Amino acid sequence: MPAKTALDADARGEAGEAVGPLVRGVGVLRRLTEAGGTLSPSALERATGLARSTVDRITATLARMGYVRLDGRDVVLTAGVMELGNAYLAALRLPALLGARADALADELDESVSLAVADLDGIRFIRQATRRRAMSVSFRIGDLLPAERTAPGPLFATEWAEGDWARWRARRAADPADAAFPAVPPRQPPADDFAFARRVERARRDGWAVDDQLIEPGLVAVSVPVREPGTGRPACVASVVSHTSRHSAAGLRTSLLPRLRTAVAAMEAELRTAPPPQPGPPPAGLAIWTAASKQELGREFVESLARGLTVLTAFGAGRPALTLTEAARATGLSRATARRALLTHEHLGLVTAHADRTFTLTPRVLDLGFPPLSRSTLARLAGPRLRALADRVHEPAALAVLTGDGTEIQYTAGAGTSRVLTVDVTVGARLPAAATSLGRVLLADADPRSREFAEVRARGYALVDEELESGPRSIAVPVRDRTGRTVAALNVATHPARRTLEDCVHTLLPELRATADEIQRDLHTASRFTRVALR
């Protein structure tokens, strides 16, 4: 069994009532996250210390929930697992309230800007506005960093009590190289722990802090706390991050700190004036779904794991804190089942119990799959869905977007078949938009006033028969983002000798629409708090 990290080992709650399958399932998700999102079952055996049969049952359950997919010999995290992190970020509200101001500051300064919250003696990112350069910052939403190697860390540590300092010293002694923080390089050489205490005192005096190449050579940052209305405690910390070829640490203080402070003042005003959130509908039918899955899959479905994870999704916008009764009502689970799940999550550090008998999610929920998926592209999300579609219909499938001038389509993902006669889909290739089914779907949405593609808009698909060249016949449907805007198109191509036009509409179109729905569901989940690149 691998040794627990200092952050994993801080077991809280009534550990004796912890649900073993839920503990093991969370462990599998954490090991997959640490590995970048993909591990073989045998590698999961080694990483978790679990028996192969247990790993197989856990991954089968997670696959049923849409949190992983079984891809050949690998277990791969999917966008569905981001529902767990989304629940925390929605309950937190800070990304929704402050994210636009962080993005605007990044545009104004042409530097990366991040928002981070405290996570025990570490800091965890909840928003990243990253500049796209050859030399750029690669931290992701959900990444955990040691407080002493960051600019936000000293600001959060100004609120630490003696118990927090004791935990920090214990972690530093047990993990001097920061092996428990895969997002940062190992510490070289060992740090002067007294230096962090001095930085905390400076942060307390100045109200801001810098990171002068503490994470790695060349990386510099300046941070200012965004304080909660009423308490004055840091709700989060905003940072401007750069590298020494653009700014020195001293240069950050003189040139960027004033503008960062102005932006933070606007963020604090946003927190003061934000109206109370309106609760959205809680998840529905989860208890019924897990029972049906158990009946269908038998012992391969670990019902206690599935039910335990669904409890995390009961939290969200307008539901930042839940009582046991509210959690049970939101999920449809019994009070006893919800209680055991919440106690297990408290034991694992995923929820905190409060004196008023409510529970809240902790930032550690982001450990469950969020970082490796937080920079997904639409092509990456769509790839497995395209392969499954191509395998079902035995025809090539493709995804495309409009080019900037709107005259061409560009293929961004594709899946072929083993046929001798087939349509070749080359990722990156461009074709005239008006002559392709993909392009007509995209053009129909790009200009809703256009009469040329009114029929395509009304039908919701485009069917093109040998217009680009003799042979290819294709049918396409739109892929829409969270706002309902068409951002890509999905098609299946065939040959007239294999399928009639009627067959394309009656057989291929339903398969296309079902696949587009799957891609849209993944896109909507992944893009709720992150940016999903379309190319």
UniProtKB/TrEMBL annotation:
GO terms for biological process: negative regulation of DNA-templated transcription. Residues 80-273, 364-525 form the IclR-ED domain. One of its GO terms (molecular function) is DNA-binding transcription factor activity. SUPFAM superfamilies: GAF domain-like (SSF55781), Winged helix' DNA-binding domain (SSF46785). Gene3D superfamilies: 3.30.450.40, Winged helix-like DNA-binding domain superfamily/Winged helix DNA-binding domain. It holds the Pfam family HTH_IclR. The keyword Zinc does not apply. It comes from the Bacteria. Residues 19-81, 302-363 form the HTH iclR-type domain. Keywords: DNA-binding, Transcription, Transcription regulation. SMART domains: HTH_ICLR (SM00346). The keyword Transcription regulation applies. This is IclR family transcriptional regulator. The lineage of its organism: Bacteria, Bacillati, Actinomycetota, Actinomycetes, Kitasatosporales.
